């Protein structure tokens, strides 16, 4: 016919790798998959942020403007740390 058997395509007739688990190849494959997901996410962000007509909407949704924290002065914060204890602390 015109079909080659699977064993002859693998190069070693009669011997296969079925059922043999390798931790290192599995770890490499999973790491490669995670890396590809990161690369694809990066390129999708570039596409949406710089090419799409609705880029401003995506930009404001993805990034939040950082604002300076509000400064509030409470009595505990305004007292110097080295001040002597008050009289109310000595009454016991």
From TrEMBL:
Compartment list: Endomembrane system
Key words, A-Z: Ion channel, Ion transport, Ligand-gated ion channel, Membrane, Receptor, Transmembrane, Transmembrane helix, Transport
Organism per entry: Myotis myotis
GO process terms (BP): calcium ion transmembrane transport
Transmembrane segments: 28-51
GO annotations of cellular component type: endomembrane system; plasma membrane; postsynapse
Protein name per its UniProtKB record: Purinergic receptor P2X 6
Biased composition (Polar residues): 74-86
Matches recorded under InterPro entries: P2X6_purnocptor, P2X_receptor
Region annotated Disordered, chain positions: 69-92
Family (UniProt): Belongs to the P2X receptor family.
Keyword Transmembrane helix: yes
GO molecular function term, any single one: extracellularly ATP-gated monoatomic cation channel activity
Chief localisation class: membrane
UniProt KW Secreted keyword: no
């Amino acid at each position: 016919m015109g079909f080659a058997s699977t064993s002859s395509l693998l190069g070693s007739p009669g011997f296969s790798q079925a059922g043999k688990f390798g931790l290192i190849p599995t770890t490499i494959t999973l790491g490669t998959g995670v890396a590809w997901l990161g690369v694809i996410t990066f390129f999708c962000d570039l596409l949406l942020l710089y090419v799409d007509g609705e880029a401003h909407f995506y930009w404001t949704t993805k990034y939040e403007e950082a604002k300076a924290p509000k400064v509030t002065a409470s009595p505990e914060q305004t007292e110097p740390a080295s001040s002597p204890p008050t009289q109310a602390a000595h009454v016991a």
